[in-house]
Amino acid sequence: MMKLRGIAASEGIAIQKAVVLDEVSLSIKKESNLSPKQEKNRLNQAIEEVTKQLESIQSKIHSQKQIIMTVIEAHKQMVNDPELYKQVERLLNEQKVTAEYAFEQVVNNYIKKLEKTGSEYFKERSLDIKDVKRRVLAALLGVRLPSLLAINEEVILVAHDLTPSMTAQLNRQYVKGFLTEIGGKTSHSVIMAQSLEIPAVVGVKDITKIV
Q1: What's the CA dihedral at 182, 146, 113, 181 to 10 degrees?
Q2: CA-CA distance, 160 to 141, in Å (whole number)?
Q3: Angle between the 120-141 and 188-196 helix axes, to the nearest 10 degrees?
Q4: Alpha-carbon span 38 to 188, nearest angstrom
Q5: Is 72 exposed, middle or buried (0-12, 13-18, 19+ CB in 10 A)?
Q6: What does the alpha-carbon distance between residue 27 and residue 8 come to, in Å, rounded to a whole number?
Q7: How far apart are CA 151 and CA 11, in angstroms?
Q8: Which tens digit of pLDDT belongs to each residue from 113-133?
Q9: Strands 155-159 and 18-20
């Protein structure tokens, strides 16, 4: 019998077949063949698309728990942050780079500042920013991210990580628990799992390879 250890993040016991979520690859190119104006237009379209995605999640999530609605609303505000857009726009004007490269550079600077504080709270909040970054980059690259709203049978989710916006889509009728390779007790994913009363264990090393 194999015994795996992790952090008990949301209490409960669940037994069901496992579904492993594959990581989505996002390949970023630096050099652009387009003008800064065209790259800005691409960024605007991506921001509009992600805003619609988040609004769709809000309309379809299977819980009206306030924490979940608050997290998704916060993500919408991050996506539409005018200061963030200004910094990306400045980089596009100064260098001949793609919108995805510029956006990633600016957002990574935000993340580094949060992680340098040494605070576990701010480190976990950086996961929300990474979630937003992933959605915008996927929209720019035309990559479809997995939707958990499509799950219609009882499963245990196994993933490298579950982003807050993915956790918001969990339907407790079908998702009976989840396991992730990374994450801490104060992450929004864990807080939402507790709110939904879904058993969760995080920090289980190599679980996606073992299952």
Answers
A1: 10
A2: 22
A3: 90
A4: 35
A5: middle
A6: 34
A7: 22
A8: 888 887 767 776 777 888 899
A9: parallel
User: What does the alpha-carbon distance between residue 85 and residue 92 come to, in Å, rounded to a whole number?
Assistant: 10
Q: Is 3 left (phi over 0), alpha (psi -120 to 50) or beta?
A: beta
| This prediction's pTM | 0.82
Residue by residue, DSSP assigns 38-53 as: HHHHHHHHHHHHHHHH
Q: For residue 37, count CB atoms less than 10 angstroms from its CB and return exposed for 0-12, middle for 13-18, buried for 19 or more.
A: exposed
100 — pLDDT class (breaks 50, 70, 90): very high
Distance CA 189, CA 200 (A): 10
**How big is the CA angle at 51 (ends 45 and 57), to the nearest 5 degrees?**
140
